[in-house]
C-alpha cells in the first residue's frame, strides 16, 4: 500500500490517507483540499507518538499496514515514522499538497515539481491568448515586487503588511483550487488547476521568505 | 500599500547598503562538511553578483525580460540596453530572487551578454552557463532561468522596435529577420 519500502522516491501512494481525521474520505476530491493547519499538526503528532520508533504501541489506523511492512523484514516503526514525516511535510505546504494531489489523480500522473513539466503548461497557457500571456507576466511582476519589498524591509513590523497580503493570496489560491477540484469532478481540464498550483508555488516562496526574514539578511531561497 | 516608484527607489538604496559579507557567511553555512561543495565561480558570483539593478524599462532601447522557474518559484528580471545603430548590448542589469545557483547563473550571464549582438546573445545556452559554473546536475535548471531571461529580454526589445521603426533602412531589415526567426 505504501511505497516506503520501494527504492524509488516517486511513490504515488496517497499521503492523504495517512491522515483520516483531516481527510476522512481519503483526500480530495472527496474531501476538501483545505485543512486547518493546527488540526493537521495535531493528527501528525498523535500519529508520531503512536508510531515513534521508541514506542512499541501501534495505532489502529496503521496496524494493518504495519504488519504488511514487517513481513518485508524492515524496521517498521522507523520507516513509518519517516513516512509520516514525509506525508506531513508534503501536506502542510499548500504547494506540495496540490502537487501531490495532481500526481495522484492526473491521468498521466504528472509531477509538476519538475521544471520542464510546469514550463510546458505555462508556455501553452501563454500562447492561448494575449491576455493569458499578460496575466502570467503580471503575476511574475507581483512576485518580484513582493520579494523586493521584503528585501528592503528594515524591521520586523514592516513585514506585517506583506504577510497579510501574501496570506490572502495563498488563501484565495487554495480556495480557487478547491472549487476547481470539487466542481469539476471528475476533472477533465487540468490546465487551470496546474496553472493555479504554479501561482501558489510563488506565493508559498514569498511566505517562506517572510518567515525566514532577519534584519540585514539577504533574501535567499532554498529548495 | 507601497507605490511602485517608491518601492523601486528605496530598493536601489537598500541594495547599496546591503553588506555582501553576510551573503558569504550564509553561503558558508550552506555547505555541510563532507557533501558536495559549490565551485569557486558560483560562490564568487553569488557573493558579489555583477550588474545587479535595473534600467529604465520605458526606454525604447531597453529590453526587459521577466521569467520564472515554476518548480522552484524563482523569479528573474533581466534588462538589456541595446545600441540601436549596431545592435550590440551595451549594458545589462538583473535582479534575481532564487537560490545561490540561480543568482550566480544570472550574474554570470550578464557578463556574458555585454558587448554581444542580440543574435549572439540568443545563442547562449544554459548548458554552457552550467558548465562554466560547474553546476551539479540537480542545479542545472537554475541556469535555465538565465537563458530564458535573455530570450525574453531580446524578444521584448525587438517587439518594442518593431512598433516604432520605419519599414525602410537596416533596422527594418534586422527587425524583419528577427520576426522571421521567432
TrEMBL record, chain A:
UniProt organism field: Scheffersomyces stipitis (strain ATCC 58785 / CBS 6054 / NBRC 10063 / NRRL Y-11545)
Keyword Chaperone in annotation: yes
Co-chaperone HscB C-terminal oligomerisation domain location: 136-211
Keywords from the UniProt entry: Chaperone
Similarity comment text for this entry: Belongs to the HscB family.
Family annotation (PANTHER family): IRON-SULFUR CLUSTER CO-CHAPERONE PROTEIN HSCB (PTHR14021:SF15)
InterPro entries associated with the record: HscB, HscB_C_sf, HscB_oligo_C, J_dom_sf
Highest taxon listed in the record's lineage: Eukaryota
Biological process according to GO: [2Fe-2S] cluster assembly; protein complex oligomerization
MF (Gene Ontology): ATPase activator activity; protein-folding chaperone binding
Gene Ontology cellular component terms for the protein in this record: mitochondrion
Protein name: Molecular chaperone
Automatic annotation (TrEMBL), chain B:
Signal peptide segment: none
CDD domains, sorted: IscU_like
Gene: ISU1
This protein's name: Iron-sulfur cluster assembly protein
Pfam families registered for this protein in UniProt: NifU_N
Ranges of residues in domain NIF system FeS cluster assembly NifU N-terminal: 38-162
Protein source organism: Scheffersomyces stipitis (strain ATCC 58785 / CBS 6054 / NBRC 10063 / NRRL Y-11545)
NCBIfam families associated with the record: iscU
Stated family: Belongs to the NifU family.
Pathway it works in: Cofactor biosynthesis; iron-sulfur cluster biosynthesis
Amino acid at each position: 500500500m505504501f511505497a516506503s519500502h520501494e527504492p524509488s522516491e516517486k511513490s504515488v501512494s496517497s499521503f492523504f490517507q495517512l491522515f483520516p481525521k483531516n481527510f476522512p474520505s481519503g483526500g480530495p476530491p472527496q474531501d476538501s483540499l483545505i485543512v486547518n493547519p493546527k488540526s493537521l499538526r495535531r493528527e501528525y503528532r498523535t500519529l508520531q507518538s503512536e508510531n515513534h520508533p521508541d514506542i512499541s504501541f501501534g495505532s489502529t489506523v496503521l496496524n494493518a499496514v504495519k504488519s504488511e511492512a514487517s513481513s518485508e523484514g524492515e524496521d517498521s516503526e522507523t520507516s513509518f515514522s519517516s513516512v509520516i514525516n514525509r506525508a506531513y511535510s508534503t501536506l502542510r505546504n499548500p504547494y506540495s499538497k496540490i502537487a501531490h494531489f495532481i500526481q495522484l489523480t492526473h491521468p498521466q500522473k504528472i509531477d509538476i515539481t519538475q521544471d520542464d513539466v510546469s514550463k510546458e503548461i505555462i508556455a501553452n497557457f501563454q500562447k492561448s491568448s494575449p491576455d493569458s500571456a499578460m496575466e502570467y507576466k503580471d503575476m511574475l511582476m507581483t512576485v518580484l515586487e513582493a520579494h523586493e519589498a521584503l528585501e528592503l524591509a528594515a524591521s520586523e513590523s514592516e513585514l506585517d503588511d506583506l504577510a497579510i497580503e501574501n496570506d490572502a493570496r495563498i488563501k484565495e489560491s487554495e480556495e480557487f483550487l478547491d472549487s476547481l477540484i470539487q466542481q469539476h469532478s471528475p476533472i477533465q481540464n487540468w490546465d487551470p488547476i496546474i496553472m493555479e498550483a504554479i501561482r501558489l508555488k510563488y506565493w508559498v516562496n514569498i511566505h517562506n521568505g517572510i518567515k525566514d526574514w532577519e534584519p540585514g539578511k539577504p533574501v535567499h531561497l532554498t529548495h | 500599500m507601497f507605490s511602485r516608484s517608491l518601492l523601486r527607489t528605496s530598493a536601489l538604496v537598500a541594495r547599496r547598503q546591503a553588506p555582501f559579507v553576510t551573503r558569504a557567511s550564509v553561503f558558508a553555512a550552506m555547505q555541510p562538511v563532507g557533501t558536495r561543495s559549490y565551485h569557486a565561480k558560483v560562490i564568487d558570483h553569488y557573493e558579489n553578483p555583477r550588474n545587479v539593478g535595473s534600467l529604465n524599462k520605458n526606454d525604447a532601447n531597453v529590453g526587459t525580460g521577466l521569467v520564472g522557474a515554476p518548480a522552484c518559484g524563482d523569479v528573474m528580471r533581466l534588462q538589456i540596453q541595446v545600441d540601436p545603430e549596431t545592435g550590440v548590448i551595451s549594458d545589462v542589469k538583473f535582479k534575481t530572487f532564487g537560490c545561490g545557483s540561480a543568482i550566480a547563473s544570472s550574474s554570470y550571464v550578464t557578463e556574458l551578454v555585454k558587448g554581444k549582438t542580440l543574435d549572439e546573445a540568443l545563442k547562449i545556452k544554459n548548458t554552457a552557463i552550467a558548465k562554466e559554473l560547474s553546476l551539479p546536475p540537480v542545479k542545472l535548471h537554475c541556469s535555465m532561468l538565465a537563458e530564458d531571461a535573455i530570450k525574453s529580454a531580446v524578444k521584448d526589445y525587438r517587439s518594442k522596435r518593431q512598433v516604432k521603426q520605419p519599414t525602410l533602412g537596416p533596422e527594418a531589415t534586422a527587425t524583419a529577420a528577427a520576426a522571421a526567426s521567432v
